[in-house]
């Protein structure tokens, strides 16, 4: 029998757009990506970009409103606000991305194990997720800080402990939903090992929602860090963080209102950036949405 | 007398990113009261778009570029959305492939079938009684039990029967069934076919069956329209369609159906090639690239609609009256 | 002809409801009987059709055969070697392939077609040479252009996805392919292409096929033998042509009669089969088909029939089935 006669003449559909291409076509996702990349560049190159030393005290020039020498003015100790804000981006992004990154990886692993592993392990992990997420977040954070003392490592630990259960549960639910999917069954029938199924077939299909959730959680974490620093429970002076800059500005709100404004702007922009990026990623990573756009 | 349902040179295009896709290209059909009409074709031939046009429920990104659909002489596509919705409740009813989508999962069958008669002005008790009668008529023996059940508590065949009952409650002039048996087993399919056939004497309107399944058409319909690439390529009474098909596509389609092949075949017939891209339809006959009889004329000029008899016509250069 | 796959008196039960409580109090959990008394064999190079309504246990049987569903009793043998241990099923999966009903859903969505068709080689650590080259060869065998290797499953048409599944199933040249509704959702003109492709490959590679379908018209043309299931039991099995010509079980007869004819001159006015398939939770006593059987007698309502031999290789589970005169 000739197989040439079986050759199909059907034309191939045009290849679908990549997730990145999809993201960049979306005005919101594009805006988010630009903002996030800008802040990451600021954070990485803070020593090069900051015009002054952020902790250099110069009391002669304290409380200067924005001017050509100090674009965002100076604070109560005469430190350059712009430099402090740029260095603050480093603290804000450093803490939030490290913490959500660690939490994401832990949540991913625990969620996969809970969803795919034996039932008793699942029960234990779900109990752990549920009891942790039933603790009130701020109270829990305050308790941990009281025990361990304020500082960046404590802050990261608190954030990781608070966010892992949520990520774990998301991944577990995704894993459970996909476990019965035809293609997972199909992989079993061709003899794929559990490790292979988890790593090659489950993982790529469950990380999408997690990435979206992570990027939308980063602003929450930045706010948390700012909030705790504002309460003097986070990053201590003289390290510049958006939270303690905001606190300094608040104490001199009447004499120097520009300080609060200047510290608030990067916080708002960065929050918006990550939220937009998350929304954009959600649209771009959802294969069904992509399919609809291609039809 | 003018027909109950007239589709007149209807063209519908979907707006898409890469340009418009012509889903229907000058489709005309008629249906008299009491007739069962079949619309048959393969996926992408436009039959679902035609079904949606018949019930005045085209997608938001679909444009009617020409023609109209008239029910009792009234153009239903140009009506205001409110008027169209009323029309769907009273004059037009539909049955879908998956009856699960026709019912709300959170209400009992009773709540829904009784509600379908809101406009009748009957008391609730009277409406309930009518619903009961209708369920009995479609072969649901324990109608009271069925009215108390939620849709997911019924079997597929039972749900489809209930969907038929719900569709008939308003005594519609036009009943459109889109793949009514595709989701069912052979035995249930036979029962629903049997039911629809017995109902044709009960309702005063026309029934339109849209399907890809030639067997269902053969069992159920009086007249058939064969669609290909957004056009009606052949219309014929059902007996002529199966025993004297004129369009090469109709012939090929019937030849491919394993149900139509009497002796066991090692190699099943197929239609080589694929339907044309409707974003850029070919200038000539759209079946020409796959047609064994096609010549240069077929490929360059659009084919005429050749009347073979007063009830049969084919869209083909090669058909002689 | 030697048997590739042998099933003898296979039974599959599922624990009903929560299995934990009865286990704690030391009682046997209530079990739902899904399959029972399945005896079937598939010969080398043969194509067997497995037919029945949804809920008759067709797919469960296929899953039990590959060890995806534990058997409660009975024996299964693959090329003479008994199946049961984990290792035996792992070895079996190297030699068999299961094609799922929904081809797109059975392909891992974030892998490209080229990686998908060559995956069996990776899993079983079989030498495949250049992966790209091997993917091209496999795709060519099923009539697909090499460029399709770069595509994702959701970018394929129904027919193309079906061909990719065939390519993947045949990658390691298995002995037996189980195909669940291989033509579901395909247009008639494409259906023939896929079936012709499968039977062509069967002849060339001497494969055995088990085709699970409720489409009798299709099964009639592409299978050598046919087995009909009802409520988890085989009610009839025999050579396809003979069973279609003269079905011995009333259920087989009504299934054949229920098939809609693409010919208005053969319309039937009576209903071949009434009622619905009963629930597995309430199996009818006696012959399980008696509730819908047009020929049921008092005996059928009480006494469950055993499989009777009609002719060599042809059996029916009916009190009224007469053997073929010899």
Please give the most extensive interface between any two protein chains, plus how many residues each contributes.
Answer: B-C, 44 and 42 residues
Oligomeric status of the shown chains?
A: heterotrimer
How is the biggest beta sheet of chain B arranged?
8 strands, mixed
| Strand numbers in spatial order across the main sheet of chain B | 6-7-8-3-9-10-12-11
Task: Classify the beta-strand content of chain B into a percent band.
Answer: 15-25%
Radius of gyration of chain B: 21 Å
Order of helices and strands of chain A: HHHHHHHHHHHH
**SS content category of chain B:** alpha/beta
- How many angstroms separate the termini of chain B? 26 Å
Question: SSE layout and pairings?
Answer:
The complex is a heterotrimer of chains A (295), B (321) and C (326).
Chain A: H1 19-25, H2 27-44, H3 46-49, H4 81-116, H5 119-133, H6 137-148, H7 152-179, H8 182-189, H9 194-230, H10 242-251, H11 257-285, H12 287-294
Helix pairs in contact in A: 1-11, 2-4, 2-11, 4-5, 4-7, 4-9, 4-11, 5-7, 6-7, 7-9, 8-9, 9-10, 9-11, 10-11
Chain B: E1 5-14, E2 21-31, E3 36-40, H1 47-54, E4 62-71, E5 74-75, H2 81-90, E6 92-95, H3 109-115, H4 124-137, H5 143-148, H6 156-168, E7 174-178, H7 186-199, E8 206-211, H8 214-220, E9 223-228, E10 231-237, H9 238-243, H10 248-256, H11 296-300, E11 305-307, E12 313-315
Parallel strand pairs in B: 3-8, 3-9, 6-7, 7-8
Antiparallel strand pairs in B: 1-2, 1-4, 4-5, 9-10, 10-12, 11-12
Helix pairs in contact in B: 3-4, 4-6, 6-7
Chain C: E1 3-15, H1 20-24, E2 31-43, E3 47-51, H2 58-65, E4 73-78, E5 81-83, H3 86-95, E6 96-99, H4 113-123, H5 131-141, H6 158-170, E7 176-180, H7 188-205, E8 208-213, H8 216-222, E9 225-230, E10 233-239, H9 240-245, H10 250-258, H11 298-302, E11 308-311, E12 314-316
Parallel strand pairs in C: 3-8, 3-9, 6-7, 7-8
Antiparallel strand pairs in C: 1-2, 1-4, 4-5, 9-10, 10-12, 11-12
Helix pairs in contact in C: 4-5, 4-6, 6-7
